[in-house]
């Protein structure tokens, strides 16, 4: 029996938060994306590639990691928006070194969302070059 390969693309994930409106609004504003929309019980942040992060209210929030590949210009805009909000950025996922890193010949920064998720913006995919 022959199975055809089918294209696979990431579509959405559910992000647990104690305040879905605030969490979704924070992500959309910081990344410079359109305002969140409602879909059923979710506050949805749509990404330009068609995927989405669907925020859902929850009494229990287990910190997750979400990383976003962005252009150099968007990286500058994101880190400026975070500075304006007083949200610190870090060069490492453990938040030990303030500022950003220069991994793979690009730049990367980690920061916390209001609900405690560890968010990351990078300008080059991991393993794409540089030190």
TrEMBL record:
Domain VOC: 9-124
CDD domains in alphabetical order: ChaP_like (cd08351)
One Pfam family hit: Glyoxalase
Leader sequence segment: none
Protein name as it appears in the record: VOC family protein
Lineage: Bacteria, Bacillati, Actinomycetota, Actinomycetes, Pseudonocardiales
